[in-house]
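Support case: user asked for a sample of complex input and structure output to validate their parser. Sending the pair below.
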Amino acid sequence: MSLQDILTTGTAPKRVAAGMGFWKSLFSALDTPVAAPSSVPADDPLAGYGPQAVEITPAIAANQRLILSTRRDIDLQELEALCDAVGWSRRPVRKVRRALDNSFLVVSLWEQLAQQRRLIGFARATSDHAFNATIWDVVINPSFQGQGLGRVLMEYVIAQLQQAEIPNITLFADPHVVDFYRRLGFVLDPEGIKGMFWYPS
Amino acid sequence: MSLQDILTTGTAPKRVAAGMGFWKSLFSALDTPVAAPSSVPADDPLAGYGPQAVEITPAIAANQRLILSTRRDIDLQELEALCDAVGWSRRPVRKVRRALDNSFLVVSLWEQLAQQRRLIGFARATSDHAFNATIWDVVINPSFQGQGLGRVLMEYVIAQLQQAEIPNITLFADPHVVDFYRRLGFVLDPEGIKGMFWYPS
């Protein structure tokens, strides 16, 4: 079953299935009406992660839950710690908040152990809400890399953008992740279209 | 005098100087307080074009004025006619309106002949309002191409984004305009960063 099938038929359970090194993604029907928070069982692992949350199953470790969320009220200290972990340069918190507020989509990946939750992955996208989206700041905590979580995170981002009917999904890939994105269906310079960056002279 | 000088010193007049094939751009100080519409003289050619409007001088033809504007309440029929003129495929008006409403920057270029005005150029940018902007839909009416108006339009777009302190300005260039953007200071695949587009499988 392809991601497209799932989005079209909307019959998949609210789970994402995981395997070592390869994730067979089973996305929830993202347009299914979501229960109001008051009706969510107290032991619902997705409670507090927002209406688009999905759980990745099985988790990597025992007692662990891995949850994808589109909530954008992320603690910026936690986000900074995640970006620090991959060696990104620090950015002013005020500007990061502004960027999140003005992103079309903000996706976070959480590890939940009992009542403790930890931000272990992130991505966001700018968009005109109609034709184009551009994905930025894709990151997975190095301790959680190599297990396919980056792929699941990106498939979730793509599913959300498809759900919003954005036809043109783009990104700018560092050289060492070009193959990663290629395996996800991203095409390099299609029809000779080139990514360009402006530098002040 | 470079564009950067002008933006830094803010001493240039509210005019853009034009020459055949090469435009020496003299941008207005975009952060200069703008007079309220009620105080604009009735014969002000920039009246009605919004607070960021600049005139390109000299114009190409007699009795002609060329004006750049950031107003986003563009008549969508006019915009469609412009896009038709360069052979772009038609897009649903409702989605175009949505895209304009959700663009960070919308720039239009107008030819004014007496009381008649005509849309002859366009560009827009999406952004997170903090770190990144991506420029889309850059177009000049073919009858007005080859006179440097594309360059002036793009310099105005860049100036607006610099004014908003967006450090990372990007775009995806079709093969035949890569050199055009290169001359404007855009760099292809800097440090091996590649533009990628997602295609549904």
